[in-house]
Structures are given as structure tokens and as C-alpha cells.
Design goal:
This protein has 250 residues and is mainly β. The chain has 4 helices and 17 strands. It is 10% helix and 39% strand.
């Protein structure tokens, strides 16, 4: 870490997240949170993050990204400094769940509900074969074709929003996203393997959907309204739609 003093009333915290590989590529879409201050941000296309207005004290900082081991540190802020730090995340091996045997074929446990909901309809679905046909496109481009989905772009990043947006429904997107050009919208909550990575809260930093390579995905579900959303994911957050992404197991 590099600590540089600056005459400010509150501290600034900035840096970059990279993969612990050779070379070390930047990791867009990594999440950095300071739970005690209810602060969170996601890295941009260059892996950069930025916080300001941090008061004096020692606070727990958590860094995580899908597919990588998380990091947690205690960072000390004087209330009048700039703390610059870069972090390297180590790729994590995917553990296999129990394989369930159905009708002579094999179906991984976490895909059972996906297939059941796809069989009964009620949402929009993309399967592995659908994604393979679009393998040369970014995920945002593929998702834009789903009914009820609007892909909003900000800088080099993209986020999933509801195409049913009205002026009264503005959820998601913080000041940094606005500076990058993110329009106001009704941004959909996003789950990856049943872990919510974007909550659709007001002023929450957007989740860059293009940070997920389509080749790593087994299936995608999208529900455009709270009424369509499966009950376990339905809440006030689902008013802007719900996207469920299931990663593949080799």
C-alpha cells in the first residue's frame, strides 16, 4: 500500500483490482465494500475504484469478485489523507455439487430449478446452446434481445435495466456511474448462482454485466416484473426486474 498525506477534511480511498496471474489483467466488476460505513463500489473497465468522504477510523474493507478468492483487510484512515492501494485476487477453483440423475441423463443440482421454471414458462430464458450461438458477443449484447430488458451503457460498461421504466422508478446507479454516462433507469436486481450481486437499491453502484464472459454461463433467467418473479426472489427490489445467472460446471 502507498499512503500519501493530503489536506482534506475526510479521507479518500482509491486503487485497482487485478488478477493474481502473469500478466495481471485488471478485474472489472469487482466489488469493494466498507460495511461499517455502508459504502460500496465496483471497479470500472480498468479495474479502478474510488471512495471519498471516509471519516477517521479503522474500517474493515472487503474485496470480492465472482470466480476469485475474496480479500478482507483493516484499513486505517486519518480523516485527512489519501490511501492508494492495489489488490490482486487469486482465481478460485469451482467446486462440484452433487450430480442428480434424471431419466437416464445427468443434471447438475443447481440447474434443476432453472429447468423446472423453463418448462413452465413465465420468464425469458437463455440456455447454454443459445449462448454458444452468440459466443463472439459481449453478454450485454446478448441480453438486449430478451423481452423486457434494456441494456444501458456507461463508458465501457453495461447494466441491465427494465424496459418498462417510468420517471417514478429510478433505482440503481451512483454518482460515479452518472459521471460515466449511465442514464437514470429502473435497474434490475442480478443474482449469480443464487448470490445477489446487485440489489437494485437507490444510488447503488451498477453491476457491469459485461464482466461475465458468456462462455462461463450455463443458463440465464429474466423476469420483467415482481409478479413474474419466483417467490424466493420477489421483493420491492424485483419491481425493476430480476436476472438469474447460472454458471456452468465442467
Amino acid at each position: 500500500m502507498c499512503l500519501a498525506s493530503a489536506a482534506r477534511a475526510q479521507s479518500v480511498f482509491l486503487g485497482a483490482i487485478v488478477a493474481d496471474e502473469d500478466p495481471s489483467p485488471p478485474l472489472p466488476g469487482a466489488e469493494i465494500t466498507i460495511p461499517a460505513l455502508n459504502l460500496g463500489a465496483r471497479t470500472d473497465s480498468l479495474g479502478k475504484f474510488f471512495f471519498k468522504g471516509i471519516p477517521k477510523g479503522v474500517f474493515r474493507v472487503i474485496i470480492r469478485r465472482v470466480g476469485y478468492n475474496s480479500i478482507a483487510i483493516n484499513a486505517r484512515f486519518s480523516g485527512a489523507d489519501t490511501l492508494a492501494a492495489d489488490f490482486a485476487l487469486t482465481p478460485v477453483a469451482v467446486s462440484l455439487d452433487t450430480v442428480n440423475v434424471l431419466g437416464g441423463g445427468t443434471q447438475h443440482g443447481k440447474f434443476l430449478e432453472f429447468e423446472e421454471r423453463r418448462a413452465h414458462g413465465g420468464g425469458a430464458f437463455l440456455t447454454r446452446s443459445d449462448l454458444d450461438k452468440e459466443k463472439d458477443r459481449q453478454l450485454g449484447e446478448i441480453l438486449a434481445r430478451l423481452p423486457g430488458v434494456r441494456i444501458n451503457h456507461y463508458g465501457a460498461e453495461s447494466a441491465v435495466a427494465s424496459s418498462r421504466y417510468s420517471a417514478q422508478q429510478s433505482r440503481g446507479g451512483d454518482a460515479m456511474d452518472r459521471r460515466k454516462g449511465a442514464p437514470r433507469g429502473c435497474y434490475s436486481q442480478v443474482y449469480i448462482d443464487n448470490v445477489r450481486v446487485f440489489s437494485s437499491d437507490v444510488n447503488e453502484a451498477l453491476f457491469n454485466i459485461n464482466a461475465i464472459p458468456p462462455s462461463t454461463i450455463q443458463g440465464i433467467e429474466y423476469y420483467a416484473s415482481r409478479e413474474e418473479t419466483p417467490i424466493q426472489y420477489a421483493s420491492y427490489r424485483s419491481e425493476c426486474g430480476t436476472m438469474l445467472i447460472w454458471t456452468r460446471i465442467e
